[in-house]
Amino acid sequence: MTAPSTTTTTAPATTSADTVVPVRFDFAAALKDSLKSAAIAFGLSIPILAFKTDQSGGDIFLTPRWGLVAIFVSIIFGVRLLQHAFMATKAYRLATPDPHQATEAVHAEPNAFQKVSRFGIPFFLGIAIGFPFLIYLIQGGMNESRYWVDLGILILTYVMLGWGLNIVVGLAGLLDLGYVAFYAVGAYSYALLSTTFGLSFWICLPVAGILAAFWGIILGFPVLRLRGDYLAIVTLAFGEIVRLVLINWVDLTNGGAGISSIPRATFFGLPFTAGEGGFADFFGIEYHGMQRMIFLYYLILALALLTNFVTMRLRKLPVGRAWEALREDEIACRSLGINTTNTKLTAFAIGAMFGGFAGSFFAVRQGFVSPESFNFLESAIILAIVVLGGMGSQIGVAIGAVVLVGGPEVLRNLGFLTAIFGAGFDPNEYRLLLFGAGMVAMMVWRPRGLISERQPSVFLKERKAISSAHVKEGHG
Amino acid sequence: MRWLQDPILDVQHLTMRFGGLVAINDLSFQAGRGDITALIGPNGAGKTTVFNCITGFYKPTEGMIALRKPDGSHMLLERLPGFSINWKAKVARTFQNIRLFSGMTVLENLLVAQHNSLMIASGFTFLGVLGIGGYRKAESDAIERAKYWLDKIRLTDRADDPAGDLPYGAQRRLEIARAMCTDPLLLCLDEPAAGLNPRESHELNALLLSIRKDHATSILLIEHDMSVVMEISDHVVVLDYGTKISDGSPSEIRSDPRVIAAYLGVADEEVEQVASEIGA
Amino acid sequence: MEIFVQQLINGLTLGSIYGLIAIGYTMVFGIIGMVNFAHGDVFMLSAFIALIFFLILTTWLGMTSIVLALLIVLVIAMVLTSLWGWAIERIAYRPLRGSFRLAPLISAIGVSIFLSNFVQVAQGARNKPTPPMMREVIVLFQGESGYNVALSYKQIVIMASTAVLLAIFWYLVQKTSLGRAQRACEQDRKMAALLGIDVDRTISLTFVIGAALAAVAGTMYLLYYGVVSFNDGFVPGVKAFTAAVLGGIGSLPGAVLGGLIIGLIETFWSAYFSIEYKDVAAFSILAIVLIFMPSGILGRPEVEKV
């Protein structure tokens, strides 16, 4: 983004004929354009909005709902008109210099990362660690905070998945649309190992990670020479194949019905049960169902922080620099003696390993896994988290996860809207609709994500963030 | 005729075909150890294709490319996988259209070039992640080496800037420094002076001469700028339409009528003009 | 033998639907180099548009001639779906032109999620059946075991209209100035703009044509299967994309050829191997083709310049 021109020399007060100051707001033109948009919106809403197909038995019939179309069209009209008004004012403001301009330094502002990192990282970490207590205080009780701790666990799971995928997409520049396959491998590894062999979570966790990494290499190997969108599509195909095999291989996976009664997590051998020998009994405290939840919360927090720690460490190691170099220019990498095949495979394997860890956590949390938890939408959400956060930026990915996973939860609390839209209105239905629209809006608004600057892994004198204009997105 | 007695690179009967197109036809030449060898020829003569064969980006259709190590052993470059040509055979290269890691800092570019030795020092990542082993020491050595080259190409002040931010001439120098950080025996430069102004190209000559003097690195370069070629090279090989038309010292080349004809067509009256231009 | 011929007919019918969708992928990829991930959902949307108009015409306006109704539905679906194609390009892709390379792909995934959920919210999650229509069949021959090899009217309509529309479309792309502009934009967008080609308009028109052909496919799909649901976009979309890649992405005859091949593979796979794994087969073919012959059957190989 270029800074707005600060070299405008026209004096603010003069309105001589040759100075081009945009008209403040051309109402007629804006109206015309808004009407045009409204007409298009009308065209789009026929017939999908205007008629609803209803079934009774085998018959299908139509119910017209022109009122809805009218609301939709007028919303589009209004939004478009407001947009015109806003843009015109903004253009006017930019074109008329203000008195402070001459003394304002253009690039002195700290970049987004610096702004976030100075206070943000300790702040976020503090919030994350103290979250169950904060919620306990705010909600005033264990049972009341259940929903929030559960949401925290969900968000942290996605933070971890985002960080894992960030290694593949953000650092190595390999676009992976099938990341959920490794999540599934991890989840099913734990589910199968614990239900068939009775192995404990702490043994299964590393095994699941290793199996996922192994699958990362197996699936990564054939796609090494693919680039760009092709790589994305093949990884998508692999993700879908894994899911379809999980559905159809009933002997092993119990098919679409999934695997249930997976052993729950234990506190290093102590189950979270009310009776003798349980966690509460051992520590001599009163049993509460939330104890397991809080344990799970800290478990996923620890796993996520492990992912982050390892990734930060890897970035400063030759393999991490080779990933980033690979994203920048694969041919130059080869000419410098870097084995690009192995470098890509390590990125796939390590990213997959963290996906596998997250997967076995998912299984232990839910106590149930089924193929439907690992569909393409999950991959899309994880990828959207990475891209919204800013590829390669750890804190950005964490923010992305909070926004994309926590944001839709706001919809649950919009019950008052039923007063406007009628009793049948369920805001939760619109979760994915808004999610899709949000993905588009975010790409249009900030294609490089919230934190697009890259932090160098090493410096001689001064650490300067690198503007996204230079950072490449990789061939795959 | 040093290149015949102690060649570092021996290219024999190299042929490269793309479908029906013959880009290089039965090319044989040697580059001497410690020499600066220039590969020249009109546009489309096949010079970059020769480079791509030497550095493993193309597999030659026929022929042999042997690199002779100082201990006398041979490595056949056409049989090595692409990345081994740098790592095992110690051949480094630059590119005609600069290929820096533009989103990484200048210093990071030079550290990526030392990937393989750092990789060993970090215990192939396993020890490095755990923070044990001598990685810290190896990295500071690598930074020292990078600093040496930064000093040499006068970019120390810009070490923490992204490589993509550098002006063109500095990018060319950085690419050479990056290739030198891999500690090569043979450095292949694809038009290093392209786009440089006269002062920069003069500096480039000094840099290349000092690389030859201070390091055990021989240089093979493609160049159109005759001032660079004539001034610094010890040996010139001239290509046209994929075949070698002349091979010798700069003074022999500049008076070779076949070379002049290849560069300007065969009109006799123009030959003289060329001769005077190149100062023959 | 009889089963083979019957599956051949079924496969070609299915293949022509895939081929029509594949053209949208191949054209968009050719001109702006992106996988229009939302194209499968545009196809699904068009099937819904067709369904609703078919109901309007037959139940409300009492039209008795199914063929005439279908013809009108086809035209309306093409027009309205084109509008969707145009709007999607305008809102979700055009602002991203020349931006970060991943951005359009992510945006397209967003559009895809949006469209399928929009249809779900607006029309409900249940499968939508059409009233039964065109159930007549022509028995081609009877096998010894009493198995009839039949060609249904539906199949004739689908294959015939595919052929006719492809011919029209072929003329459009090969012989008109629009086609020339498209090919110029494929080669070099900047140069085309310098020579006075309205690049934005050409790209818009590409999306419009792609959407119109998807609408034909959507209408035919509805006619053939008699049922549509909001999540019917993804899998046919992926299969059509496979077809586009198999035929050689960027190549129009390739897209049709690829569609027919994928249609045949799918029907034969279902008939002779296992119906459960038919989507696995489709995805595997996609992966295998992209990995081992990324330039497809009729595409030109991409050469990497050093």
Automatic annotation (TrEMBL), chain A:
Entries under InterPro entries matching the protein: ABC_transp_permease (IPR001851), LivHM_N (IPR021807), LivM-like (IPR043428)
Pfam families found in the cross-reference section: BPD_transp_2, DUF3382
Alphabetic keyword roster: Cell membrane, Membrane, Transmembrane, Transmembrane helix
GO cellular component, one term: plasma membrane
Signal peptide: none
MF (Gene Ontology): branched-chain amino acid transmembrane transporter activity
Name used for this protein in its record: High-affinity branched-chain amino acid ABC transporter permease LivM
Protein source organism: Microvirga brassicacearum
Automatic annotation (TrEMBL), chain B:
Pfam families: ABC_tran, BCA_ABC_TP_C
Record bears the keyword Nucleotide-binding: yes
Keyword terms, alphabetized: Amino-acid transport, ATP-binding, Nucleotide-binding, Transport
Cellular component GO terms, alphabetical: plasma membrane
Keyword Ribosomal protein appears in the UniProt entry: no
Cross-referenced PANTHER family: CONSERVED COMPONENT OF ABC TRANSPORTER FOR NATURAL AMINO ACIDS-RELATED, HIGH-AFFINITY BRANCHED-CHAIN AMINO ACID TRANSPORT ATP-BINDING PROTEIN LIVG
Protein name stated in the entry: ABC transporter ATP-binding protein
From TrEMBL, chain C:
Lineage: superkingdom: Bacteria
Pfam families listed in its UniProt record: BPD_transp_2
Organism this protein belongs to: Microvirga brassicacearum
Family statement: Belongs to the binding-protein-dependent transport system permease family. LivHM subfamily.
Subcellular location as annotated: Cell membrane
Coiled coil: none
GO cellular component labels: plasma membrane
Transmembrane segments: 12-35, 42-60, 66-88, 100-119, 156-173, 203-224, 244-268, 280-299
GO MF annotation list: L-isoleucine transmembrane transporter activity; L-leucine transmembrane transporter activity; L-phenylalanine transmembrane transporter activity; L-valine transmembrane transporter activity
Membrane topology label: Multi-pass membrane protein
UniProt name for this protein: Branched-chain amino acid ABC transporter permease LivH
Biological-process GO terms, alphabetical: D-alanine transmembrane transport; L-alanine transport; L-isoleucine import across plasma membrane
InterPro entries xref list: ABC_transp_permease, BCAA_transport_permease
Keywords, alphabetical: Amino-acid transport, Cell inner membrane, Cell membrane, Membrane, Transmembrane, Transmembrane helix, Transport
